[in-house]
Design goal:
Order of helices and strands: HEEEHHEEHHHHHEHEEHHEEHHHHHE
Domain Peptidase M16 N-terminal: 36-178
GO molecular function: metal ion binding; metallopeptidase activity
Low-confidence stretches: 1-20
Number of domains: 2
Shape: globular
CATH superfamily of the largest domain: Metalloenzyme, LuxS/M16 peptidase-like
Protein name: Probable M16 family metallopeptidase
Radius of gyration: 24 Å
Helix content: 40-55%
CATH topology of the largest domain: Cytochrome Bc1 Complex, Chain A, domain 1
CATH architecture of the largest domain: 2-Layer Sandwich
CATH class of the largest domain: Alpha Beta
Oligomer: single chain
Domain Peptidase M16 C-terminal: 190-367
Strand order of the largest sheet: 1-2-6-3-5-4
Number of helices: 16
Distance between the termini: 86 Å
Largest sheet: 6 strands, mixed
Family: Belongs to the peptidase M16 family.
Structural class: alpha+beta
Number of strands: 11
Strand content: 15-25%
Length: 441
């Protein structure tokens, strides 16, 4: 009887947790087109203020790559009312922290403050939008910062150019063919007027979403948002050219040499649909099945049992317009990259011909349930998700309903999607190799 009571108590607790996971929010638009989202969470006396701009590397010109990432740095330089070099001092002096990040599709800025500093956070983000100071000294300073970041994270990092090597070969016309950090010679060649024009075009209220999440008074927050953001002029509508890639119909073979590595890597990469599609989510499940954790199919087979690989992984690099599905491995001992690809391909063929077991399918479902809980476990995570689902997916309520899509995916769909996208004639086969020593004169 005691066990039954405990079980019922556990079920009730789980039910309560499931209900608590629903994220409540309010959204509205200012007259200048800025979309505002409010989410109240009184569990801790903190508040997150974030702005996501619908501008990323794909909005750049082929001879001016790296602009969006550059602005991630440049817009911390200062504003009309915040002196150069004072931004971070102002944040830390008021008990906060802040950061920003850029992808091919968007740029995201945020502050986390004690809840009594919400007005300061709203004012600072409105300053970044309304009164940025974009001058030559700021451009020159951040140019050096970005160059150092590229040296550290890309040029001198083992396998640091992997994404560039794949993107260059996977995309021929779409701007996804270049990396987010871009090329330094493009930034060197750009004029101050080009940077100012980029800011004027993309950093406008009607190309952004403001999220306030945490402990705050809603009426007061709305008053401050109107006060500081309401006066910012609406920008010209942002229009984007649509780029469509021709299907890959035969394997692309490519090679890249990296002076920072000693062990070669082999990569198979497949072009996949937008992250907004059901198929993209099924591919998420396939990558989890193949390589998430030491009990996953590829890890157990190639790393543990056959000891053919030092590392193996599959992941769906999902983006707004297209995705890229990666599978890569580092061969071990006498194993060749060809042997490794053959073993990986054999597991893909199994996925295409047979249904995964009920046990493995349940394990997948459990992992995605856990991912859903983790993604909304912090107010920072919720703020990011609210902005992303609104701006990139066009459906903000996916923060509550996307898990239902994953729950509805079937074993049969996993098999069919593997058949649809993961075929040798639809992929890039990249040998990422140690650089050969230069021939002696």
């Amino acid at each position: 009887m005691k066990k039954i009571v405990m079980a019922l108590g556990t079920m009730a607790m789980l039910g309560s947790t499931a209900n608590a996971q629903k994220v409540a929010f309010e959204e509205y638009d200012l007259e200048n087109g800025l979309h505002v989202v409010l989410h109240q969470d009184n569990s801790a006396p903190v508040v997150v203020t974030s702005v996501m701009y619908h501008v990323g590397a794909k909005d750049e010109q082929p001879n001016r790559t790296g602009f969006a990432h550059f602005f991630e740095h440049l817009l911390f330089e200062g504003t009309k009312n915040i002196g150069r070099g004072e931004w971070f001092k102002l944040v830390t002096a008021n008990g906060g922290n802040n950061n920003a990040n850029t992808t091919d599709d968007r740029t995201y800025y945020y502050e986390v403050f004690p809840s009594n500093n919400l007005e300061l956070a709203i004012w600072m983000e409105s300053e970044r939008l309304m009164h940025p100071v974009i001058n030559q000294i700021g451009v020159d300073t951040q140019n050096e910062v970005v160059k150092e970041e590229k040296r550290l994270r890309v040029d001198n990092q083992p396998y640091g150019n992997l994404l560039k090597a794949v993107k260059t070969n996977m995309f021929k016309v779409h701007p996804y063919r270049w990396t987010t950090i871009g090329e330094m010679e493009h930034l060197d060649a750009a004029t101050l007027e080009e940077f100012q024009a980029f800011n004027k075009k993309f950093y406008v209220p009607n190309n952004a979403v403001l999220v306030v999440a945490g402990q705050f008074d809603s009426a007061q927050a709305k008053e401050w948002i109107k006060k500081y953001f309401g006066a910012i002029p609406k920008g010209a509508p942002v229009t984007r050219q649509k780029f469509e890639e021709a299907p890959i119909t035969q394997q692309i073979n490519a090679k890249w040499e990296d002076p920072n590595i000693q062990i070669p890597m082999v990569v198979t990469a497949y072009r996949t649909p937008s992250m907004k599609t059901r198929d993209a989510r099924i591919l998420d499940m396939i990558s989890t099945y193949l390589s998430d954790g030491k009990s996953s199919v590829l890890y157990k087979k190639l790393v543990d049992d056959k000891k053919m690989a030092l590392q193996v992984s599959a992941f769906n690099y999902s983006q707004e317009d297209y995705g890229t599905y990666f599978i890569y491995g580092l061969p071990m001992g006498a194993t060749t990259t060809d042997n490794l690809v053959s073993e990986i391909d054999a597991e893909i063929v199994k996925l295409q011909n047979d249904l995964i077991s009920e046990k493995d399918f349940q394990k997948l479902q459990n992992k995605f349930e856990n991912n859903y809980v983790s993604a909304n476990a912090s107010v920072e995570g919720i703020a990011d998700n609210l902005a992303t689902y609104y701006l990139l997916y066009g459906d903000i309520n996916l923060i509550n309903t996307e898990i239902d899509i994953y729950r509805s995916i079937t074993r049969e769909e996993i098999r069919e999607v593997a058949k649809k996208y993961l075929n040798p004639n639809q992929r890039l086969l990249l040998n990422y190799e140690p650089a050969k020593e230069k021939a002696q004169k």
